[in-house]
Amino acid sequence: MGVSLKDVAQRAGVSIKTVSNVVNNSPHVTPQMRARVQQAIDELGYRPNLTARHLRKGRTGIIAFAVPELGNPYFAELAGAVIDAAARHDYTVLVDHTAGLRERELLVCQEFRSHVIDGLILSPIHLETADLVARHETSPLVLLGEREYEAPYDQIAIDNVAAARTAVRHLLDLGRRRITFLGSRTGQERQPAHLRLRGWREELAAAGITPDESLVVTAEGYGRADGAAAVTALLERGERPDAVFAYNDLIALGAMRTLTERGLRIPEDVAVVGFDDIEESRYGATTLTTVSPDKQAIARLAVDRLVDRLSGKPVAGPQRIRPGYRLVVRESTGGAGQGPPPEEGARGAAGD
Q: Which residue has the higher pLDDT, 336 or 273?
């Protein structure tokens, strides 16, 4: 049988109410009394019943995190960060997989599992602003991912255009001029791929270079095979870049494999920059220079906004929050090593 508040109260020689105040971190407890109760808690091994605590507040104690692709290391790493951030608020996370399908994004956005979860953190791909405006579900929603929406919900996303410009500027500083963009997408102009392509164009133009649209290569998906196919298509039509800026790390890694198989040296012949700073980018045969979003800050900000809205306290209206990022320079552009995680609000480049 588990240890109860009553057991702790008897051990400490105080009332059950005092123990409850200590467990719930109430300010109306003297330091001496708090230490006395905490000693009893430690001696007895008491653990709060979080389910009962949430139920008393009309909550389940569960929030959902819905991502388009759990097999993508970026989303897997972000999910881990969300779970850690939620645990600090005594919340459990239900991780859902939409497969990037519009119908599944609509399902989780509306009333799906509304009886199970208290709120939702969603990283959508195909939802439109009208879908979000038409949402009838009253549980709090926080949007992740760089797709931009004019909707009444908090949005957590780095500045994709600025981050892409940072990556391209790094390549320009290395003397590279024929910089290809791998991973362009068709349609939906406010998706991340379009924002990163816009950053590519803007930074080249700022350097006095007319963007060569023949160096923009579309990709069917976001994986290694897509990167390999994209750079193969580029080379087979006779284009020879001296640098690659890829939509994400997986595309960059696939491209690097193909470039090496074609006898091109990295970074001597072709420098490569990715985006996401997944763990694999740090441990390949050639480590990858990449834009590193602050995943810990993204997770913390998303969970904090959700919990604030669940608390019932006055909260400012929906906000668009920009977490930090940085460029981590590794071997694929002439650097080395790994380096620490990015700091919130950080900008620009950092070597390892």
A: 273
